[in-house]
Amino acid sequence: MSLPDSPGVIWGNSADPARVKATVVVTSMASDSHTWNLVYLQLLLEELGYDVVNLGSCVPDDLLISSCAELRPALVVVSSVNGHGYADGMRVIDKLRACDQLVATPVVIGGKLGIDGAQTGAHIHNLMASGFDAVFDDTATGIQDFNRFVCAIPAKTQPEQVHWLLEPTPTGRL
Ligand code: B12
User: Fold this and answer.
1) From the CA of 83, how far away is ligand 1's center (Å)?
2) Which InterPro entries match (predicted)?
3) What is the pTM of this model?
């Protein structure tokens, strides 16, 4: 499927019957109490046709891992805006990838991941090298890039049968 490249446009895909009912987990991490970022992502993904399980804010690592292992989602979307996203993300992705059921599940992270603006290429590279499939820094095109990424995920993905990793660009951004 080719997507138009118009800035500011959100591409809904709810008409695609194959996408309906695929589950996406939206979650924050243990340190982060912000919630509207999660609500925003949930609504966006529901508009794209997904069945969203929103784990909420301040999610302890063990709960995040056990919920994802049980739900076997087509995608895990990790959001952080409090400034601890890089550190929390590096810790959490290790635990997610150490879980047999989640070795190949697509997992992305985004939001305001640090306290000094955009993440460095090195930070993004480290997050990707540790196992995230994509990093969406809080840039003007972040949500559009996220839309593109989500729409490219095969509908009805069986996580245990699929292993794919998007390579970072030289800047680390997709
Ligand atoms: C409301 C708010 C709070 C409320 C939260 C209430 C609640 N129930 O959510 C309270 C008062 C609790 C709070 C607390 C704190 N906050 Co606060 N908060 C805000 C505020 C004003 C609005 C956040 C909001 O709701 N935005 C609306 C949602 C829809 O948008 P968003 O969060 O920006 O998310 C967008 C993007 O980041 C992106 N996105 C987010 N996640 C993801 C994931 C993916 C995959 C993708 C693609 C995109 C994406 O998409 C969203 C929509 O565009 C922001 C400042 C601001 N104006 O943004 C500060 C802000 C987020 N808070 C901040 C800080 C520092 C704190 C505290 C540490 C303050 C303190 N010293 O106590 C604590 C942290 C508490 C904790 N343990 O996490 C900083 C974070 C700084 C940073 N990261 O560089 C901000 C940016 C304020 C600032 N300018 O300094 N906060």
Assistant:
1) 9
2) Cobalamin-bd, Cobalamin-bd_sf
3) 0.88
